[in-house]
Q: What sequence folds into this?
């Protein structure tokens, strides 16, 4: 109920960004952290360029798209300085384009895509920052590496020259009640801590990307340092 209420009273993009930041700050304080410790990725899928620019003018520093094709059609009109993240599943035949368009790929979920991103990035003289997507909810409809395989998977891609693993990402269980998603976030935090303690060469466990509009406060309470928010900033995407 609370979530629907918040969406129903949504304001301008500027007001929404302010309100999201103040909620991030409150959630962070509960864990004794500052809002500066948390990155906000503004998810702009289906949002038109004008409104994306409006958000950039309000100071947002990172945008996220989930489809390469859509990003391609919008990014050449976005000349403002902003970091661009791919948050959606990537097919190997789009890896080259993705490496050209994005600064960060949050959705590495197979050896094959890791190798292809690395190969394409190397050809362009780049090293691509990536996160490994973990399927913490166990839902078959979700992409991502099984939690039990996270360590061996990351070890197996850590030497690829064209990528740098900088953390992990998950899309938690979809639910009206963020408490039901909390166990997914706890699970990813435990994986993140374990990976960190392994000190895998060439891997920097820095980002724990979890939490969307309906559950980001719970994600931050569980240790997230990167939240991905679309609806909470731009309103519902149209049904
Ligand atoms: C769409 C999307 C988001 C943002 O979802 P909202 O509920 O609109 O905040 C975050 N992460 C991924 C991977 C997405 O595809």
A:
């Amino acid at each position: 109920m609370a979530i629907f209420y918040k969406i129903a009273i949504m304001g301008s993009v500027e007001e929404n960004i302010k309100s999201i930041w103040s909620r991030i700050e409150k959630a962070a304080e509960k864990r004794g952290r500052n809002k500066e410790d948390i990155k906000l990725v503004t998810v702009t899928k289906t949002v038109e360029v004008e409104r994306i620019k409006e958000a950039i003018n309000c100071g947002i520093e990172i945008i996220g798209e989930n489809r390469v094709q859509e990003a391609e059609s919008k990014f050449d009109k976005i000349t403002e300085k902003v970091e661009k993240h791919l948050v959606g599943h990537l097919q190997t035949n789009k890896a080259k384009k993705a490496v050209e368009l994005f600064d960060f790929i949050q959705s590495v979920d197979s050896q094959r895509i890791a190798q292809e991103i690395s190969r394409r990035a190397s050809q362009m003289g780049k090293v691509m920052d990536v996160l490994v997507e973990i399927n913490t909810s166990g839902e078959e409809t979700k992409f991502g590496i099984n939690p039990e395989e996270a360590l061996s998977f990351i070890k197996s891609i850590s030497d690829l020259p064209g990528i740098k693993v900088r953390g992990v990402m998950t899309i938690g269980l979809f639910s009206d009640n963020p408490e039901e998603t909390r166990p997914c976030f706890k699970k990813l935090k435990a994986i993140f801590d374990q990976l960190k303690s392994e000190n895998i060469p060439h891997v920097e466990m820095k980002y724990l990307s979890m939490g969307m509009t309906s559950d980001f406060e719970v994600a931050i309470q569980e240790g997230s340092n990167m939240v991905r928010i679309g609806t909470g900033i731009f309103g519902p995407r149209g049904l």
Notes: The CA atoms of residues 10 and 85 lie 25 Å apart. The longest helix spans residues 13-30. The chain has one domain: 32-234.
